[in-house]
Design a protein that fits this description.
heterodimer, A: Glutamine Phosphoribosylpyrophosphate, subunit 1, domain 1, three-stranded antiparallel β-sheet, 3 helices, 14 strands, globular, B: alpha+beta, Glutamine Phosphoribosylpyrophosphate, subunit 1, domain 1, five-stranded antiparallel β-sheet, Proteasome_beta2 (chain A), Proteasome subunit beta (chain A)
Chain lengths: 166, 390
């Protein structure tokens, strides 16, 4: 099953996605990239139904780029998230709804980092951490995270992530 | 085809018509002659449209005009709840109707495979068209050339595949006439994927693998990122598709574009900054009517694909020679036909290089089957002799 996870920190958002593109029982690709770059500082992660993911994500991607071309400045992550949600909602009650689950991660110069959770029923929530897939059930009910970073200099404590943070 | 078993096709006769592979447009001879006759001197890398002629079609009583009506019939008469997809959102990774549970979705009754290596792209397929548990045609053609440097493997409903291949060939030709250059394999795959998208949720079933060689066209900033010029290193890089590589967005101008980097990124980069990219080399795409479009180094599609994958996954690597690659492909198809009931008869092989595609003669696999049977018998008698001599 496909899996997305995102964690927002003090001044960053960390996102990860699995790399498998599967067709029923066969893994067709082991190195499939599920992240779509909307702009310099916004990433859209997209899983769900086979063709819908790419079609919808590319549609959003091109529209965000078009906005920049027309207006000369980029959409903020919040605006991009709301735009995406609006499109999902518009198609939801049509003959061809898009069955996709999304995470939008971005960094706004004024508001800072933001992680937005969207699902196929076009709900939208800004959350400090979020996931899609089977792993979602393990992460979403946790009230807080302790995060530590281990690198060549040793162990560093990072900011504790709690529900009430942002 | 295997799919049609579940569908319980009402009229077997109509199906046997659809499952014949009509590779040549007999009725449209005029159009095809027109295509091949025109000279195009300004485009150096002009390709010639291949008009395939299947030998057996001379004896076949099937007229070509029937294609459209037969296709409509097959679309109407097939009761296919299993293919109707996501009008209602489900949590399943693949969309299937809720009414009848499947152990896993039945794949298309065929074995096709294609892989890239240093010598180009190799495509192989079996030749059995099955329908409702019987072999409708033992000599169908599942590898359809689209133009001199692009070949498509088909899996799914035969009529759908043949029709969409022709539509794709027409659109590629129109593109070439309008823009003066050939569309890359990536672009062709994208075009096919977009053309199939409106039919999502219907019974249209096409799973095509496009194998091509992109020519050395240059300087298209916003062109689809076509074939790559990576060498053996690309395999290793594909495993390292990490977040950190995002920094490379800005650096995606460098000539070495790894296969791991999805073309979306370089495309959006190019839209911001026009870059001169070298699009040349072999290219392999899998396009499915459910909307999937994947670029890769190795694909196998069909009910025999698990068996073929087992042979290919252990044997295929970039440095194969052409002969080794051909023997691996042949072995993979043979093993799949050995076990899978819906694959069999002969094996077709096409090899695509910078000069275009070349076709190997169709080989009947029953010879191989009997050779192996002889070998096994020989081994068994040898073993028995050895034990007796103790």
């Amino acid at each position: 099953m496909e899996y997305l996870i995102g964690i927002q920190g003090q001044d960053f958002v960390l996102v990860a996605a699995d790399n498998v593109a599967a067709s029923s029982i066969i893994q067709m690709k082991h190195d499939y990239d599920k992240m779509f770059k909307l702009s310099e500082k916004i990433l859209l992660l997209c899983v769900g139904e086979a063709g819908d993911t790419v079609q919808f994500a590319e549609y959003i991607q091109k529209n965000v780029q078009l906005y920049k071309m027309r207006n000369g400045y980029e959409l903020s992550p919040a605006a991009a998230a709301n735009f995406t949600r609006k499109n999902l909602a518009d198609y939801l009650r049509s003959r061809t709804p898009y069955h996709v689950n999304l995470l939008l991660a971005g960094y706004d110069d004024t508001d800072g980092p933001g992680l937005y959770y969207m699902d196929h029923l076009s709900s939208l929530a800004k959350a400090p951490f979020a996931a899609h897939g089977y792993g979602k059930r393990f992460i979403l009910n946790l009230p807080s995270f302790t995060v530590r970073l281990i690198d060549k200099e040793g162990i560093h404590d990072l900011e504790k992530l709690t529900l009430g943070a942002k | 085809m295997a799919l049609q078993d579940i569908c319980n096709f009402q009229s077997v006769f109509e199906d046997s018509l659809t499952t014949e592979y009509p590779a040549v447009p007999h009725g449209k001879k005029i159009a095809s002659n027109y295509v091949s006759g025109l000279p195009f001197s300004n485009n150096k890398s002009l390709f010639h449209f291949y008009i395939p002629v299947a030998e057996y079609l001379d004896e076949s009583p099937i007229q070509f005009g029937q294609i459209s009506t037969v296709q409509n019939c097959s679309a109407d008469s097939s009761e296919d709840p299993f293919l109707t997809s996501s009008t209602l959102p489900t949590c399943l990774p693949f969309a299937s109707s809720q009414s009848v549970p499947l152990p896993f979705p039945m794949a298309h009754g065929t074995t096709t495979l294609a892989f890239m290596f240093q010598g180009g792209v190799l495509a192989a397929a079996d030749t059995r068209s099955s329908c409702s548990g019987l072999v409708a045609c033992p000599a169908s053609q599942k590898i359809l050339p689209i133009h001199s440097h692009l070949v498509g493997l088909t899996s799914g409903t035969s009529a759908d595949c043949a029709l969409w291949k022709r539509i794709l060939a027409r659109e590629l030709r129109l593109y070439q006439l309008r823009h003066g250059r050939r569309l890359s394999t990536s672009g062709a795959a994208k075009l096919l994927s977009h053309m199939l998208h409106p039919f999502k949720g219907t019974e249209l079933c096409v799973a095509a693998t496009l194998c091509g060689w992109d020519g050395g066209e240059v300087d298209d900033g916003c062109d689809y990122h076509g074939g790559t010029e990576t060498g053996p290193g690309s395999h290793g890089e594909t495993t390292k598709n990490q977040m950190t590589e995002q920094k490379n967005f800005v650096d995606s101008t460098n000539a070495k574009v790894s296969l791991a980097k999805d073309e979306r990124f370089s495309f959006s980069e190019q839209c911001f900054i026009r870059k001169k990219m070298n699009l040349s080399g072999p290219s392999l795409f899998y396009v499915c009517s459910d909307g999937t479009r994947l670029r890769g180094m190795l694909f196998s599609v069909g009910s025999g694909s698990p068996y073929a994958y087992s042979i290919l996954d252990q044997g295929v690597h970039w440095g194969l020679t052409v002969d080794e690659a051909k023997s691996i492909a042949r072995e993979a198809v043979y093993r799949a036909t050995y076990r899978d009931a819906y694959s069999g008869n002969c094996v077709d092989m096409y090899h695509i290089t910078s000069k275009g595609w070349t076709r190997r003669n169709r080989e009947d696999l029953k010879e191989e089957y009997y050779r192996e049977k002889q070998r096994r018998k020989h081994e068994k008698t040898e073993r028995r002799d050895v034990t007796f001599s103790d």
